[in-house]
Amino acid sequence: PLCAPVIRTQHALNRFVDGRRDELQGKKERRPFLASSCDSLSECEKWRMEIVREIAKKVSMIQNEGLPEHQIRDMNDAINKLLREKHHWERRIKELGGPDHARTAPKVDDETALEIVPGQRAGAYRYFGAAKNLPGVRELFQQQAEARAKKTRAQLHKGIDADYYGYRDDDDGVLAKLEAEVEEKARREAAAAWQGPSEEDAAGSESAFVAHVPLPSDAQIQKAILEKRKRELIERYLGGEEAR
């Protein structure tokens, strides 16, 4: 094993190399801690692609069976953390109007990974590469496989009967009673629409007539007719002279 002075010297050299690289290439921009704090769609896409590259790199590294057990566990934890972070960024991209990467994008993780809670797109803890062969992990998934034993075709067909296809829905009479009430209501509404408005509705519509100009009475009409006839007789017999 290396002595303490050599380890301190290596750490100092690493810090010097990192600082020199930052001076030449510029200080690397750090990824936001929360995806919700980023409001730019292009920035979200950039950080998501960075996480995808990190996941692909770590999944490739964890395939090495010769790594120490603690390093494999730490790397597997880091991959699961990155997968959850990627899910948060994909959800943020969708909120900002971007594409739904959770549905359309190909998987970047190992397709042979084992899940503690299968079927969940995000949130299930997975084991990748050499982590699947760690002590206790293989036994855990063997127990889950035994608990989720597949049913045979005969067992599946055992619960399929007439009730499964809905052939006995009318036996209790409840559905027939409800259908009769709805049918009677529909008939009444159709008959009322076919007969047209009733007499009361018609009378109500007539009584609702409102005159917008003053109408003369019968006496005023008779008086106006007499005055007109009187003027016609005077013009006919007197030749246009005024009646005294």
Explain this structure.
- With 244 residues, the protein is mainly alpha-helical.
- The chain is 59% helix and 2% strand.
- It has nine helices and two strands.
- A two-stranded antiparallel sheet has the order 1-2.
- It is elongated and about 150 Å long.
- The mean pLDDT is 79.
Secondary-structure map:
Layout: H1 4-25, H2 41-61, H3 69-95, H4 101-104, E1 114-115, E2 126-127, H5 137-147, H6 153-158, H7 174-195, H8 199-207, H9 218-238
Antiparallel strand pairs: 1-2
Descriptive key words:
two-stranded antiparallel sheet, mainly alpha, 244 residues
What's a concise summary of this model?
This protein is mostly helical and 244 residues long.
Largest sheet: 2 strands, antiparallel
Give the quaternary arrangement of the chains.
Answer: single chain
Poorly predicted runs are none
Reading side by side through the largest sheet, how are the strands ordered? 1-2
Counting helices, strands and paired strands, the structural category is mainly alpha
Average of pLDDT: 79
Helix and strand sequence:
HHHHEEHHHHH
